[in-house]
Amino acid sequence: MTAPDAPLAPRLKKLIRQDVQSMHAYAIQDSAGMVKLDAMENPHRLPAALQAHLGQRLGALALNRYPDGRVNDLRKALADYAQMPEGFDIMLGNGSDELISLLAMACDVEGGSILAPLPGFVMYGMSAQLQGLKFIGVPLTADFELDEAAMLAAIAEHQPSIIYIAYPNNPTANLWDDAVIEKIVSAAPGLVVFDEAYQPFSSRSYIDRIAGHSHVLLMRTMSKFGLAGVRIGYMIGPKALIAEIDKVRPPYNVSVLNYECALFALEHQAEFAAQARDLVEQRAQLLRALGGLGGVKAWKSDANMILIRVPDAAKTFDGMKARKVLVKNVSKMHPLLANCLRLTVGTADENAQMLAALKESL
Ligand SMILES: *Cc1c(COP(=O)(O)O)cnc(C)c1O
Fold it and tell me: 217: which of 95, 197, 325, 330 is 20 to 30 A away, CA to CA?
């Protein structure tokens, strides 16, 4: 008998894919006792009265039953919230991360590939790798704009099955030039997915332009909206296309607790809209303050995060952490992000603490 905590035996190791063995598990930073500004969470909680009301609703659910048709009430409520056009349909995921995986699974045909600008959201590349599809990363310009010529050349060369456009992008927080985006949509031989995780804070959405296309999907999540703990992502696209992708979705992927919480939040969407307005105002104040900090470059943002460059990212990150402020050091994610940190926009109080820690840690 070997102990259960012994290293994996060679005969069992053989069963696990080599590339999976070489991977690092997604690291979640320990944030106990910290001002947590590393993961684009909405810092606001529900007001106490709404918490109590939600608790009653969740307590009364039939947890002994599988999720039922009420999940369709959530699909309808989200379609209304997003102003989904006629002829389109909506599917739900356990977070948009699940939808990204399902899309790679559904599109796993011989020679299939996924293309996205870099630096970008890590799950696009990871979903390709895990599904055995080729991933093509196309570098942004030094100022994090789309490199039009490089994108169009890569699309022509690789004929990708899926192109991801994070709109706004993570971790750079910006929206890209609409004229370039239209050229990419026109040039795409396969699907184009607009990932609008930051829609509540963004000045533009592609939903206005989706109706004219049969190959464009729009993906969103309730995570940055204020329900990161609930895990609800959704994807809108032409009916026939959504019908195919929905076949690979595990039945009951959205729990009764998830959908009831999400429905509750949409019933109180004015509350969440007010929180988003506050964060957009906080973002403007933060950008003004960062603009006055010597040695710090901050990029414009359409999300609830701000990308900055400092003289020494590791030193600043460690200094801020020692002062109990947790941000994300993205400086090793991609060469274009050298010495960059990603700051999540928090409450006025959290942002003041973050700025003070940043100044002392430069
Ligand atoms: C946070 C994020 C997601 C993931 O959202 P979940 O719904 O929490 O899985 C997807 N895309 C982008 C660009 C993100 O930043």
Answer: 330
Q: What are the C-alpha distances in Å from 282 to residues 43, 276, 299, 316? A: 12, 10, 15, 22
Positive or negative: CA dihedral 48, 50, 56, 58 = negative
CA distance 337 to 33: 28
- Measure 4 CA to ligand 1 centroid, in angstroms: 35
In the chain, where are the structural domains located?
10-47+270-361, 64-267
Give me the CATH topology for the region 64-267: Aspartate Aminotransferase; domain 2 (3.40.640)
Residue with the two structure tokens 């905590």? 5
Which residue's alpha carbon is at the smallest distance from atom 14 of ligand 1? 197
Confidence of residue 1 (pLDDT cuts 50, 70, 90): low
CATH no., domain 10-47+270-361: 3.90.1150.10
For residue 93, give the ligand 1 atom closest to its CA: 7
At residue 359's C-alpha, the angle toward residues 307 and 299, to 5°, is: 20
Q: Is any ligand 1 atom within 6 A of the Cβ of residue 135?
A: no
Query: Tell me: the pLDDT tens digits for 303-318?
Result: 999 999 999 999 999 9
Q: Do domains 10-47+270-361 and 64-267 have the same CATH topology?
A: no
Which ligand 1 atom sits closest to the C-alpha of 303?
15
How many whole angstroms from 292 Cα to the centroid of ligand 1? 31
* CA 221 / ligand 1 centre spacing (Å): 7
Condensed to tens digits (0 to 9), the pLDDT of residues 248-268 reads 999 999 999 999 999 999 999
Supply the pLDDT for residue 276. Answer: 97
Q: Whose CA is nearest to atom 11 of ligand 1?
A: 197
